[in-house]
Design brief:
The chain is an alpha+beta fold and 294 residues long. The chain has a single domain, classed as Phosphatase 2c, domain 1, CATH 3.60.40.10. 27% of the residues lie in helices and 26% in strands. The chain has 6 helices and 12 strands. The strands form 2 sheets. Strands 1, 3, 4, 5, 6, 7 and 10 form a 7-stranded mixed sheet that branches. The chain has a 5-stranded antiparallel sheet with strand order 2-12-11-8-9. α1 (85-103) packs antiparallel against α2 (116-139) and α5 (250-259) crosses α6 (263-276). The longest helix has 24 residues, at 116-139. The radius of gyration is 19 Å and the shape is globular. The relative contact order is 0.21.
Length: 294
């Protein structure tokens, strides 16, 4: 499996982030033009946990029944389709991945190891299960001509972040005052640029820049996996739908991350910018950053 890899050096490596140091926040907004919000998102952490049904122990509450975080999950899905089709597609994709993570994905220990291929295959399987679930739902809704959704799924297993991409929602990695786009937009315009058919400087003006070449529920679903090392002081993760990037540049996103110390503040500041500029689409933003260790 081909995996795009970014920033793999160990420079500025920091200790493992504790649970109480994870600053995780997300929001979604319909914008000012669309009548319905067809975006969905998930921000969650995965923990080993013991559920006690009966015991003779006198102080069960004093036992560490919930273990330290195994992984952090961030997902953004931007629905595509007429009427309610897009909203249904993004909801089904998000629910399917959540079920997969909670019941099927069990190989977190393989991340970053010599057995990593097993973990990467599981991530692709999660995306394809979402794709199949949306296709199954669409087959039961003949009134919906199109039902699909983007799916940008990030699973952080210290010290790595793995991102599975379908569509053009994005994952960014901010570090050392620079913002890096981790994912590749799966659009017809981006494909033309990558193939050398269209110059990169024409990308922003292309009528195909928002036409998806791959999505969950679409005719083609081609998951792409990226990996980035995230154990650097001051690093920040940002996931978003294109409702953000239609109105706010990468430079402005970087500025808001640098200006605000909390994940919630970054999300709200970016949303305010989108609303000020017309908010022509649904917008979803999820930010994860490390709180200062005290």
């Amino acid at each position: 499996m081909k995996v795009a890899e970014l920033f793999t050096t160990n420079a500025h490596q920091s200790p493992r982030v504790r649970d109480n140091e994870v600053d995780l926040f997300g929001l979604t907004h319909p914008g000012k033009v669309r009548a319905e919000n067809q975006d969905h998102f998930l921000a969650a952490t995965v923990h080993p946990e013991v559920t006690v049904h009966a015991t003779s122990l006198p102080s069960i509450d004093d036992l560490p029944l919930r273990g330290e975080r195994l992984a952090t999950i961030i997902l953004v899905a931007d629905g595509v389709g007429g009427q309610s089709g897009g909203s249904v597609a993004s909801r089904i994709a998000t629910e399917t991945v959540t079920r997969y993570v909670s019941s099927t994905l069990r190989c977190y220990h393989a991340a970053g190891s010599s057995h990593e291929e097993l973990f990467l295959e599981s991530l692709q399987d999660a995306a394809l299960e979402a794709h199949n679930a949306v296709r199954d739902e669409a087959s039961n809704r003949p009134d919906e001509k199109r039902m699909a959704t983007t799916l940008t799924l990030g699973i952080a297993v210290w010290p790595w972040l793995y991102v599975v991409q379908l569509g053009d929602s994005r994952c960014y990695y901010y570090w050392n005052d620079k913002l890096h786009q981790v994912t590749r937009d799966q659009t017809v315009a981006q494909d033309l640029v990558d193939q050398g058919i269209m110059p990169r400087e024409r990308l922003s003006a292309s009528p195909y820049r928002h036409v998806l070449s791959s999505a969950a529920g679409a005719q083609d679903a081609l998951p792409e996996v990226s990996r980035v090392r995230i154990d650097r002081f001051g690093s920040v993760l940002l996931f978003c739908s294109d409702g953000l990037t239609k109105h706010v540049s990468d430079e402005e996103i970087a500025h808001q991350i640098a200006t605000h110390s909390g994940a919630e503040d970054v999300c709200k500041a970016l949303l305010d910018l989108v609303l000020e500029r017309g908010a022509t689409d649904n917008v979803t933003i999820v930010v994860a950053r490390r709180r200062a260790r005290v």
